[in-house]
Amino acid sequence: MACAEAWRDAGEVLASPMGTLPAIGARLAKLTFSPDLLLTDGAALLVGDVAPVGAAAGVVEGWLPYRAHLSLVATGRRHVMMGASQLDRHGNQNISCVGDWARPERQLLGVRGAPINTLNNPTSYWVPRHSPRVFVERVDMVCGVGYDRAAAAGLAATRYHRLPEVISDLAVLDFETPDRTMRLRSLHPGVTLEQVREATGFPLAVPGEVPYTREPTATELRLIREVIDPSGLRDREVSA
């Protein structure tokens, strides 16, 4: 549910969900509280219907060539939800390698579009397994730019830079603190504060009262189970 809430009242912006749960979230938002959200087929078409995850869209509304896509990217009219192999307290993200860059222990995806995503449009993160291996004191390589590095680079980097939230299987986190470091916004039902702290490799900012993440309504559950993800692909990413 938290993945859908990331696009609440987003208006006519391009949703770019990367991964199964983010894709389900964007589709659910489109069908409920964010009807103006723009969705694509994952390539170059704007789609007008909400097809099940993994299925082809039935209604095509327009063409989104690369130049038009970059125009949206460069003016903040796109909200990306990416994954993260590592994240630090400032929101710096790594999806490239683990270990020293010159001789890494593990080669991952590579930098991809993370720098331009984070500097030019809102970027949230989805982490299916919240652990100290992901939430680290210092990322091994900066791919997505965090608040500290954007501030150091100046106005050109901060104009459209925004990291709305980080969603994991344990909690929702954001950077709404005076020094723009990671804060616990809500706990998922059944999760304790101690569990989140133990699974995070740095001290989190924690408000005096931490609410629970909103659970889906009966209507939202029906849409997820019967319309958006009837094949149950979500279970491969996060166990119920």
List keywords for this structure.
alpha/beta, 6-stranded mixed beta sheet, Glutaconate Coenzyme A-transferase, globular, 3-stranded antiparallel beta sheet, 240 residues
Tell me the strand percentage band. 15-25%
- The CATH architecture name reads 3-Layer(aba) Sandwich
Sequence of secondary-structure elements: HEHEEEHEEEEEHEHHEEEHHH
List the strand order in the largest sheet: 1-5-10-11-12-13
Identify the CATH homologous superfamily.
Glutaconate Coenzyme A-transferase
Task: Report the principal-axis shape.
Answer: globular
Structural class from helices and strands?
A: alpha/beta
Report the average pLDDT across residues: 93
**Helical stretch count?**
9
CATH topology title: Glutaconate Coenzyme A-transferase
Describe this structure in words.
By secondary structure, the protein is an alpha/beta fold. It has a single domain, classed as Glutaconate Coenzyme A-transferase. Helix content is 26%, strand content 18%. The chain is built from nine helices and 13 strands. The strands form four sheets. Strands 1-5-10-11-12-13 form a six-stranded mixed β-sheet. A three-stranded antiparallel β-sheet has the order 2-3-4. It has a two-stranded antiparallel ribbon with strand order 6-7. Helix 2 packs across helix 8. The longest helix is centred in the first third of the chain and has 12 residues, at 20-31. The two termini are 13 Å apart. It holds the Pfam family CoA_trans. This is CoA-transferase. Belongs to the 3-oxoacid CoA-transferase subunit B family. One of its GO terms (molecular function) is CoA-transferase activity.
